[in-house]
Amino acid sequence: MGPDKLKASSAQTGAQVFGGSRLDCKIFYHDKCFDGACSASVFTRFHRECIGTASSFLYHGLVHRAGALFDEREFIDGENAIVDFKYSASKKVTWWFDHHLSAFLTPEDQAGYERGQSDGSEAMRKFYDPSYTSCTGLILDIAANKFGFSTKGLEELRHWADIVDGAKYESAKAAVEMASPAMKLTMVIESTQDDTLGEKLIPLLTEMPLQQVLDQPFVQTLLGPLMERHHAALKLIGERAALERGVIAFDITDHLTEGYNKFIPYYLFPEGTYNVGLSKSSFRTKVSVGTNPWTPIPAEKLANLAVICERYGGGGHARVGAISFSPDREEDARRAAGEIVAELQARETA
Ligand SMILES: [Mn+2]
Known about the structure:
Elements: E1 23-30, H1 34-51, E2 54-62, E3 79-83, E4 95-98, H2 107-118, E5 126-128, H3 135-147, H4 155-165, H5 172-177, H6 181-191, H7 197-205, H8 210-214, H9 217-240, E6 242-244, E7 247-256, H10 264-268, E8 274-280, E9 285-291, H11 305-311, E10 315-316, E11 320-325, H12 330-349
Parallel strand pairs: 1-2, 1-3, 3-4, 4-5, 7-8
Antiparallel strand pairs: 6-7, 8-9, 9-11, 10-11
Bound molecules: manganese (II) ion.
Manganese (II) ion is lined by residues 30, 35, 84, 99, 134-135, 165.
């Protein structure tokens, strides 16, 4: 959760305000997410250039969690925008853009949104379209088509927001070697513990090329240790992983790890169909199960990993799932991993 700080005064843009006082604009964005950061940046530039009423922009990151997602007290007396995150029925929210399939917490929320669209009261303030790969793309199109915003120079941002949010990496090599600045920025955004990153990074994303954003000293300081951790994980999984009958399996529970790039197994074994990894962090032992995104096997022939993981008390999506065990249940986790490996291997040879 990022703290609130005054940022990027709109005075420097020369935006004109007629017959009204300027108000702060607080932007709530999907935290630890490249598309969330890009969405907040695009919204800021759009608001500054096309609305022009904000005296300053503030940023507040939101994360999915159990229980209430919004704290009403965080909304300010001014403008409140939510981008790339769920709908809030709060009367204080003046802008909303989202593209997630599950955007509404309750049927009442959805009804409230639809009412604002049909009676026109919020038709030019709240926008939802789950057909968009990225929220960045949605904001750019709405801003351009409905408000005359110029998207010139923002092509690179949109391109990468679509790739990252859609997990449409061209190859495991691109996803693991991270040659492009967008991939490195994604790792910094997703992994950093620095709560001030958002407010520093977001304004820059629409002001300069991504390589130049990456070159900023405050980004480089965070990137260095993360690249080291990434290379260490690549080396460790490389030493442990083995491919047998279509399934890449590895156990790295003897090294505490706070996560690793999930494409590493397919980078090491491009011909593997699934991967089953056993890892351990300070608070859990985790079985991670995934499907190779570049497998030539048609989707209807692939295992539903959510169903398999649910059987062990975990969950996920059809192509990727996970099961968490408390630290004292490492043996149960190892047994589950072994059974899942066998089950997936049997499918491969069936
Ligand atoms: Mn998104």
